[in-house]
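User: Run a structure prediction on this.
Assistant: Running it now.
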Amino acid sequence: MRRIAIAAALAAALAASATAGSAQDARLEPLRSRIAAGEIPGVHAVIVVQDGRTLAEWYFPGEDEQRGWPQGRVTFDAGTLHDVR
């Protein structure tokens, strides 16, 4: 749960300080890079929305489980169902 809070706080801070267009992409890129590099493990998706506009929507492959049962490595995308209970 802590890693989700860290990623969410970082994304919110970056989105709040971002300006229009590609500057937003540039400010959010460090977060995407850290997650992709495994520095913030267990994050399968990030969606950043500001003023009703989607600034970023990323999906990352990773190990997953369902109710404690390993599901192996999953390639997540917008259509992947994810049980977080």
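Residues 34 and 84 are 22 Å apart (CA to CA).
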